[in-house]
Each structure stands twice: as structure tokens, then as C-alpha cells.
Amino acid sequence: MERDLTHIALFAALVAILGLVPQITLAAGVPITAQSLGIMLCGTVLGAKRGALAVLLFLALVAAGLPLLSGGRGGIGVFAGPSVGYLVGFPVAAFVAGWIMERTTLPAGLAAGAASVIGGIAVLYAFGIPGMAIMLDKTMPEAAMLGMAFLPGDILKAVLAGFVTQGIARMRPGSLLSRA
Amino acid sequence: MLTLTSPVETPLHRLPAGAKLAALALFTLILFRLSTPLPLAGAAALVAALHLPWERTFATHAARMLRPLWPFVLVVALWHLWTRDLNGGAVILLRMVTAVAAANLVTMTTRLSDMLAVFEALARPLSPILPPRRLALAFALVIRFIPTLSDRMALLAEAFRARSPRQPGWRLAVPATLAALDGADQAAEALRARGGTD
Hints:
The structure holds 2 protein chains of 2 kinds.
Chain A: H1 2-20, E1 24-25, E2 31-32, H2 35-46, H3 48-64, H4 84-103, H5 108-135, H6 140-147, H7 151-171
Antiparallel strand pairs in A: 1-2
Helix pairs in contact in A: 1-2, 1-3, 2-3, 2-4, 2-5, 2-7, 3-4, 4-5, 5-6, 5-7
Chain B: H1 17-33, H2 37-49, H3 56-65, H4 70-83, H5 86-108, H6 112-122, H7 132-163, H8 173-193
Helix pairs in contact in B: 1-5, 2-5, 4-5, 7-8
């Protein structure tokens, strides 16, 4: 019981820390941060339920007024802005990534990479893009065009999530709760 | 850790957090019902007026919090100039900026602890599956561990730079995750030794 709670809390903190890591700006001027890597890791390391709870805990603290979203954003305002779909999608993304991780018997790194692509990219975009379409009153394809700017960075992060999870599986097999 | 609450004390700070959140919910609901520029401009003026009677730093703080919206404002403005639908563009932009500014105003005038108390009260119906004390402990743990993990990351980065001329960058992802996992195990042990969570 205590172990579940502390893992959820520590990974909520990890998502926050990864958002503070300075942004790298890709060639097209699109900032990428490691925050969505944190979301992916919540799922692939903690599993579906704990991963989603860690992300929800993180979002609750953001809403409460801590500037923990990448770029120092936070407060209730971020839930009224055009990126709200991504925020709603965050816990679902972690849940789906964790669920896939729990269900497959592939090697941890490969499973985590695939889980991150499906959960952390496909599912996340399925929330984020309609969110932008609604908030900016644009059609789906128009919103998708805006969202696609982040795709190269997110693919990079999914690959990285695979490597990190593989590293955990090797160094702390008992801590890979998604496979415990 | 810094919160987004404004250090400039306004009378709005003294209103109960729950009431401000309820008012914000109602205001946002109305905003999304309005579909012509004029009433939306009125709503925007109302929110702006709530920023002005106080010290000037309050308004500049608020303006800074709106900065992440500018790329979207730019894209939408250019789009609507291109399609010559200025009315539609004005509605979208006024609604978006006003909704975010109003929500930011609530954040700026409410202390973190008051906001968390509202969340804990809202979560009370879930108490059979989520005991209130465990939720409060979870909030406290995250707030405590963000600076701890952050220091740990800084140490790891320095150790890396001592060994290599390159920037650590993504190479810190594995040790950072390990630090989180180890921290979680140690905190769990410490909690158990003190009688558990509930």
C-alpha cells in the first residue's frame, strides 16, 4: 500500500522534473521537452493503474497552482487553453501505455517503445488534436496540421522511453511494476 | 517551490477558494455560449478590469501567464485574415484569451493550500476508495520530492560534466528514473516504519 502511494507520488514528481529540463528547439522552431517522456514512463514503468494515477496527481497539482507544465505553465488557466485536450489525454495515454506493457510478453524495451508510440503518441493525439479543433474552432485536418509539428520529437521520446524502461528492467527488475 | 499565486495581496485573495472556482465555472460556461464579438469583448473587459485596481506588478504577472497563448493567437489571427473571416477570428480569440485569463486570475488570487483543500473536499465522495488522508499525503509527497529529485538531477548532471565535455541531455533519463524508483522505495519504508498511510 505504502509502496503504491510513494511510487505514484515520486513519478508525479518525475513528470514535473522532466518538464523543467530546458527545452530543446527543433529545426522548425518547435520546442520539445521531456515532459511527455515522463508520461510515457509512468505507464511503462508503473503500469496502467498506478501510471494513470501518477499523472492525475501531477495534473491536480498543476491545477492547484504549481507551474509544473513544460515552459513553467500551470494553474487552472491551462485547462481553459487550446492544449487542454493533451492534458485530458495525459492520464489516458499513461493508462494505455501501461496496459499494453502489462499485456505483452515482448522484451521490456521493445514493449515499452511500442506502448509509448500507441499510448503516448496515438492516444494522446486522439485527445489533443480534437481539443485544439474545438478550442480554436478549426476542422480536424487543420488542427492535425498544427499537432503534427510535435510528431518527430514525440517519436524520439517514445524510443527513449523504450531504452529507459529497458535500463530499469535490467538494473531494477523488481521495480518494473508494470511487469511485476 | 514557487507557486503561481500573486504576492500582491488583493481583496480577491480573501474570497473563499470554492466560491471563486464556482464563479469561474459559471463564467466559463457563459463564455462558451456567447458567439458574437461584442458580448465577448465585454466579458474580456470585465476580466481585465479585475486586474487593474491593484499594484501594477499584478497585471504584468497576469500578462506573463498569458504568454504561452501567443503562438495560438498568431496562427488563428493569420488564418482568419487569410480566409477574411474576421468576425469568427475575433470570437475565437476573445473567448480563448478571456477564459484563460479568468482562470489565471483565480489561480493568482488563491493560495496553493486553499486550492488543495478544495480538491480534497471534492474528493470526499471517493473516500471509500481514496481515503482523504492518503490524498493529502500524496500531495505533500510530490511537493516535497520535486526539489529533492531536482537536486539529485543537478548532481547527476554535474557528475556527468566532470567526466565528459558533452552535455548530459537525454543520458540523465535513466538515472533520473532510477532516482525516482529508489526514492519511492525509501519513502515507502519510512512510512511503514511510522505506522503506514492511514
